[in-house]
């Protein structure tokens, strides 16, 4: 797809940083009741990052995204994109946005909806058709292009939502629960598409319940709960980090040797065991010992990813 | 750039108006016109004089244009907010204020086109009258009533019902207190000047002129609320 003029091309030289500074949002009802959706939220997301936002239902993820798009105003604090108030940035440059609920007029035809969004996005008329064809091909919507929105399945509607977000090569992409309703094939395809979208001058924000997805895609993940930032986690493995971690080990042979090396190992299925270690170093040394005793290891995987572990520490076990 | 892309988008807005509102307005107008024309034809047969035709057009326009404006304005802003359509539209580099200001104008053009079509049919079927005068009247009612409707749609999700209630309520309150000499009669002066529409209709449709003060009051009232609607759009959160 052709690269369209970006913020920097248009003479804007600020680094593209998303900056939440002590942002708070309180919803007030007409009867005077109030709910704190977001409190004292401060965060910076750098240019080139794929950044995840994770949190349980009602944690404040959607409120944060609505404020980032300028659809809601923060009650307190400031929110800036590239040095501009969020709404001013959106109106000047646009953001590629996929909402959790894809709401498009059900009477519109899929391809015409994309033409409309392309027109609003400012894609020159001569290139609109090419851009629309590109995203339709990318998201595999060719056989559905002439269907009315109301005739699309949940998965196809989700793909159409993603297609409109990718129409213009925006420097900021916000994807709210992007794989919601997608089948496994398209979930995998989505991950490849997002991987291909990574660019040094592009920031991608993904809000998701799916920790596995964020672990795979994001560089860092903000874990939020009750409207507060609990912690920011780097998804890469921290070799220096000493923490008790459980691994699932599958053995092809030598099961009788396991207890000698991993005292307290618990059987978790045929040839499968759950073991606890304090560090990666301890795991490797025990595995070497096990192999030297004649065991044949077919797989070793952490029971919980780094992110999942951090998420449970920050938010607690699901009730 | 913003204006350029919005100007192109006006064609889509016009298309939406025709499909979602324009056709309904024309059908209602044809049925309404037929029902009104029939007894007139029977009473004034075989020949309808220009005076009779103008009386008939005034009678028709008095109710039809107000209903057409209500249809045209129904959900002009609130539907996008209620249904969540704004989410993708305004993630693009587009100002909601400009978008809806343009939509207001597009709906005016759409309404005038619909009324022009109805007028042409009426002109052929019933006889000669000034279509231009009827267009002027339609434009004035659109600004007067539509401006208030635009404001209500920006501020509330139940715009059509609220606008109809305001319009009818203003008529009732004026009927009750409009001729008095106390504070209530002064207070009702601040309500939408619905009563002036009837006066202006007769004069504007028949002669193409109307008391300037009435026209200014009607137009100014609607224009003020249109601007207030833009202010609400600028200040109020779209997701609220």
What structural keywords apply?
heterodimer, A: 319 residues, alpha/beta, 6-stranded mixed β-sheet, 4-stranded antiparallel β-sheet, disordered N terminus, B: 240 residues, mainly alpha, globular
Structural notes for this entry:
The complex is a heterodimer of chains A (319) and B (240). Chain A has ten helices and 14 strands. Chain A has helices spanning 61-68, 86-93, 110-121, 125-138, 154-165, 184-197, 211-217, 255-261, 280-292, 306-315, and strands at residues 18-28, 34-45, 50-54, 76-81, 84-85, 96-98, 172-176, 203-207, 220-225, 228-234, 245-253, 266-269, 272-277, 296-302. A six-stranded mixed beta sheet of chain A has the order 6-7-8-3-9-10, with helices on both faces. Chain A has a four-stranded antiparallel beta sheet with strand order 2-1-4-5. In chain A, strands 12-13-11-14 form a four-stranded antiparallel beta sheet. In chain A, helix 3 crosses helix 4 (125-138) and helix 8 packs across helix 9. Chain A is globular and about 70 Å long. By secondary structure, chain B is mainly alpha-helical. Chain B has one domain. The mean pLDDT of chain B is 89. Chain A binds chain B through residues 66, 69-73, 90-97, 99, 101, 103-105, 107, 116-117, 119-122, 125, 161, 164-165, 168, 174, and chain B through 1-2, 4-6, 8-9, 12, 19-20, 83-95, 237-240.
């Amino acid at each position: 797809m052709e690269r369209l003029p970006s913020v920097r091309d248009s003479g804007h030289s600020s680094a593209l940083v998303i900056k939440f500074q002590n942002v708070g949002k309180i919803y007030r009802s007409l009867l005077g009741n109030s709910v704190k959706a977001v409190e004292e939220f401060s965060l910076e997301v750098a240019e080139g990052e794929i950044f995840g936002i994770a949190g349980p239902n009602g944690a404040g993820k959607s409120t944060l995204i609505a404020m980032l798009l300028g659809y809601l105003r923060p009650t307190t604090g400031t929110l800036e994109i590239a040095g501009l108030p969020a709404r001013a940035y959106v109106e000047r440059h646009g953001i590629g946005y996929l909402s959790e609920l894809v709401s498009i007029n059900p009477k519109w035809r899929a391809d015409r909806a994309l033409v409309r969004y392309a027109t609003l996005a400012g894609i020159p008329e001569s290139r609109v058709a090419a851009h629309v064809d590109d995203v339709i091909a990318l998201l595999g919507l060719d056989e559905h292009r002439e269907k009315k929105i109301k005739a699309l399945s949940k998965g196809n509607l989700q793909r159409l939502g993603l297609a409109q977000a990718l129409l213009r090569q925006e420097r900021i992409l916000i994807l709210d629960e992007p794989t919601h309703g997608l089948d496994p094939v398209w979930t995998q395809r989505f991950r490849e598409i997002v991987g291909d979208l990574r660019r040094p001058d592009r920031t991608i924000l993904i809000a998701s319940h799916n920790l596995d997805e964020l672990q795979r895609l994001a560089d860092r993940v903000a874990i939020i709960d009750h409207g507060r930032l609990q912690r920011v986690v780097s998804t890469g493995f921290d070799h220096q980090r000493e923490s008790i971690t459980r691994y699932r080990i599958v053995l092809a042979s030598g099961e009788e040797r396991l207890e000698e090396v991993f005292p307290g190992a618990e059987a978790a299925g045929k040839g499968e065991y759950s073991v606890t270690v304090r560090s990666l170093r301890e795991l490797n040394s025990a595995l070497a010992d096990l192999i030297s005793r004649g065991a044949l290891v077919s797989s070793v995987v952490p029971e919980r990813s780094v992110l999942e572990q951090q998420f449970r520490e920050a938010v607690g076990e699901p009730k | 750039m913003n204006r350029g892309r919005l100007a192109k988008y006006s064609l889509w807005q016009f298309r939406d108006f025709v499909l979602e509102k324009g056709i309904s307005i024309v059908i209602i107008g044809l049925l309404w016109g037929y029902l009104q024309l029939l007894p007139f034809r029977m009473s004034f047969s075989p020949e309808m004089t220009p005076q009779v035709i103008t009386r008939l057009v005034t009678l028709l326009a008095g109710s039809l244009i107000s209903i057409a404006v209500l249809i045209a304005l129904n959900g002009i802003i609130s539907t996008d907010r209620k249904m969540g359509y704004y989410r993708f539209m305004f993630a693009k580099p587009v100002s909601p204020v400009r978008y809806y200001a343009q939509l207001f104008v597009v709906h005016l053009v759409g309404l005038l086109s619909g009324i022009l079509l109805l007028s042409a049919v009426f002109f052929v079927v019933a006889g000669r009258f000034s279509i231009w005068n009827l267009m002027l009247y339609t434009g004035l009612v659109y600004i007067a009533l539509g401006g208030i409707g635009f404001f209500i749609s920006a501020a509330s999700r139940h715009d059509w019902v609220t606008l109809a209630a305001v319009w009818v309520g203003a008529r009732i309150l004026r009927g009750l207190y409009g001729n008095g000499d106390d504070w209530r009669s002064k207070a009702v002066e601040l309500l939408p000047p619905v009563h002036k529409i009837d006066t202006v209709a007769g004069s504007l449709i028949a002669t193409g002129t109307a008391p300037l003060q009435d026209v200014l009051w009607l137009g100014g009232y609607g224009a003020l609320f249109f601007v207030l609607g833009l202010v609400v759009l600028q200040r109020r959160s779209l997701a609220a």
